[in-house]
Design brief:
Blueprint: E1 4-7, E2 10-13, E3 18-24, H1 43-56, E4 60-64, H2 77-91, E5 97-101, H3 105-114, E6 118-121, H4 128-135, E7 140-144, H5 162-180, E8 187-190, H6 199-207, E9 220-221, H7 227-233, H8 241-253, E10 258-261, H9 264-277
The structure holds 6-hydroxymethylpterin-diphosphate.
6-hydroxymethylpterin-diphosphate binds near residues 24, 31, 120 and 260.
Length: about 280
């Protein structure tokens, strides 16, 4: 298995699970919208939050300028750039791997020119321009599965067999990336919890996460504060940290390598407990 993810000039050792902190520079993200962006981007606040996440143990920061929550409205290229590029430049001054969460090849290109290390594509490299953009660079890419589009994806998601279908999709996209010249050492996969999946689909995926693996590539999971956690715990958005951390630990036990989270410190604490019990993989 590839145990190092090559993120441009920064190799990420995946001998132990890593934490990716979420920074949404959006007015409307489902859990933290408007926190770092209201009338405009508050760069001071972004830096403060980023530094706190690094201090708490985040190895990666994922910055996004377009909400992909169910029902979200798409934003234009220029608006997305206006939101993320100045903040991205600020994050790149810090000692951390920086990821851009975007579906737009043109935004990814701007971010790559600015020096980003990883492109997090929630549309799973289905856009040929995105494949070309990443292939022309040395950044890593997260290939995520999504059924449908954010606006409508939760209407009535259906699968023959959710685990097989998603594994099949990821395998096809990995082949496309390999054919374009993006090596296995630059790929990380994500089943896309909540992206065109109901609670049963999400639970089946978490239960069988290890079966989603393709070529034994690293897996990234984003469960943090999602509706699934609310459904299982009966908690509102502001009270989903404990449920999110529990789900993240279950994911690690089933093979997750990178955890995309809002609550970095709490996730790191839980990983320490898990590492003490589940050695040697996690220490
Ligand atoms: N989830 C969200 C956004 N990007 N990327 C990956 N790879 N995996 C995920 O599960 C994932 C993701 C949605 O969460 P969030 O960023 O908190 O909200 P929003 O899309 O509303 O900004």
């Amino acid at each position: 298995m590839t145990r190092t993810l090559n993120c441009a000039r920064r190799p990420l050792d995946l001998q132990r699970p890593r934490v990716m902190g979420i920074l949404n520079i959006t007015p409307d993200s489902f859990s933290d919208g408007g926190w770092l962006y209201r009338q405009g981007v508050d760069l001071g606040r972004v830096t403060e939050v980023a530094c706190a996440m690094i201090e708490a143990g985040a190895d990666l920061l994922d910055i996004g300028g377009e909400s992909t929550r169910p029902g979200a409205e798409p934003v234009s290229y220029s608006e997305e750039c206006r939101r993320v590029i100045p903040a991205l430049e600020r994050l790149l001054e810090l000692d951390v791997i920086v990821s851009i969460d975007t579906r737009k090849p043109a935004v990814a290109k701007m971010a790559i020119q600015a020096g980003v290390h990883l492109v997090n594509d929630v549309s799973g490299m289905t856009n040929p321009d995105m494949i070309e953009t990443v292939a022309d660079s040395d950044v890593a890419v997260c290939v995520m599965h999504m059924q449908g589009e954010p606006g409508t994806m939760q209407a009535d998601p259906r699968y023959d067999d959710v685990v097989c279908d998603i594994r099949g999709f990821l395998a096809r996209q990995v082949d496309r990336c390999l054919r374009a010249g993006i090596g296995l050492d630059r790929l990380v996969l994500d089943p896309g919890f909540g992206f065109g999946k109901n609670i049963d689909h999400n639970l089946a995926l978490l239960r069988n996460l290890s079966e989603v693996k393709v070529h034994d590539l690293p897996l990234l999971v984003g469960l943090s504060r999602k509706r699934m956690i609310g459904t299982l715990t009966g908690r509102g958005m502001e009270d989903r940290m404990v449920g999110s951390v529990a789900a993240a630990m279950l994911a690690v036990q089933r093979g997750a390598d990178i955890l995309r989270v809002h609550d970095v410190g709490a996730t790191i604490d839980a990983l320490k407990v898990l590492a003490a019990v589940d050695t040697p993989r996690l220490m």
